[in-house]
Amino acid sequence: MAHTEPRNSLARTPNRRQWLQRASTTGIGFFAAGNMVASLGSSAFSHPTVAEQPFADETYASGKNVAASVHPLATEAAISMFRKGGNAIDAAIAAALTLSVVDSHNSGIGGGCLAIVRTANGQVLALDGREMAPKLAHRDMYLRNGKPDGTLSQDGPLAVATPGQLAALYDLSTKHGYLRWRDLFEPAIAHAEYGFQIDRVLAGRISGEADIIRRYPETARVLLKRNGSPYAQGELLLQPDLATTLTSIANEGIEWFYRGPFAKTVGEWMGQNGGILSADDFAAYQCKYREPIRSLYRGYDVIGMPPPSSGGVHIAQILNILQDFPLPELWKTDRNQAYHLLLEAMQLAFADRAYWLGDSDFVKVPRGLVDPTYARTLAQKISRSQKTRFATHHVPADAATNVFDDRKHTTHLTTADQLGNWVAITSTVNTSFGSKVIVPGTGVVLNNEMDDFSIAPNTPNAFGLVGSENNAIAPGKRPLSSMSPTLVLNDKKQPILSCGAAGGPKIITAVLRILTAVLDENLSVADAVAAPRVHHQWQPDEAVVEERLPDSVVADLKGRGHTTRSIAASAIAQAIQWTSDGNLHAASDPRVPSRAAAYEA
Ligand code: DON
Fold it and tell me: Domains in the chain and their CATH numbers?
């Protein structure tokens, strides 16, 4: 691709004031300023937003090559790759690597990712870089005296699964990127080596987790000041060990990580500190290409991530259910009913999730879950006026036979370029700073993705999710995820929308809201990302509503029998839209100080 020097390096479109104006003209409510604490799951894993500055600047940009992520430095890193002549794949990888450094509470090379990628030649790929359970993991490893102990799957050495993100990024780079692998690391290494200013979100995460971080001396050495206190917003965080690790991976490739010094150091430390992750687990890790889930929603081809994500299955299932109702009309004439229908469809889907979903390499996940005929039977169980309590999951017609067996705290970032490459990557270390473990000398925050397994039947995980035997722990198995990178094609098979989110189970419902806002309501991508969200995950039996949802809608939902709980922000999403004038429009979530940007070659 022949990029030249930028005419307009960072196309800066609506600023915060304009966003506010747009929100008011589209009838989108505002966050209440002050004291805003956004919640993505249980309060312990809430995603802090910015109290006095609730609206992020520069959360929308349009142009020929675009990027959106949750951190301005990661978006800058993506744009810098376009500037060097890279494509959307290079840009996305550089952004993901930068997030490892500047946003390590959410994602990083010590975690995993799921990605939907559309290449310029029209190929659509679902890439699974999800972590795998170590080979010594077993079904009852978190039971103590017969009782599940969630602290073991959430913090410390036993919580760590084999990281997958780097394997996936490397595969994408070698097969589809333009730039050299080592070039993609430049921004990330610079921010680790020379430091970056801690923003309010990261400062909040460090101080919120400081007590647990102090239990791990190396993590405290890296993330806290010498006197043990948390850094404040605006202070510089230097991560020399992480810079060295990234430099080695840049120069020597992922072998250094999976089969070399990194794997060896981590394995030895785990052995000495009560962990089970070994160098052999690293050597055995493989990212996988899977068959994407495709469903037709009102003429659009919606493409999602199959198991071990639950996102693609349940977004397809919910859309199929909603197809039975005149949603485009209802968004105009009876928005209360539209929200009610979303909640009911979510309930049905999450009841199925708890029973059926798990890693399809290990268990049967019925393909019938995404069958439109099954959705019709579920739709018939929904009352348009009253909430129904669905006591259990349902059984699709072909439950026994059709499986997704293709054999063959989190962040979402997205990029697209003028050649037609689109990347949607959701990446995570799971909850804030993952396991809180940094193995001495590495600088890498290791995930606690083991908590995404069901550690015991009906035992809720950090996000209140329950699961069945299908999501029980087994060596080499991948924990079930809600991460839902999603791509939409129009009837000419052109990509018109990509989106995804962070927020545990609220990822699924946030993506759904963006899809219905764009496809049913014809909202612009920025308005769709900003639109108020509702969430229901079957258990607990409550409708979670954003504070910005008008009071009249909340009152109406209560009248229909929903128990509502209000939170400031449900999930943090990024999206890109293509419009027929040939422009790409990137939107990052205004709920946090995120950034969208464009580059004109
Ligand atoms: O894969 C999953 O579903 C979870 N590990 C995602 C965690 C998450 O989104 C945390 N967000 N703030």
Answer: 16-287+410-451 (no CATH), 289-408+482-580 (1.10.246.130)
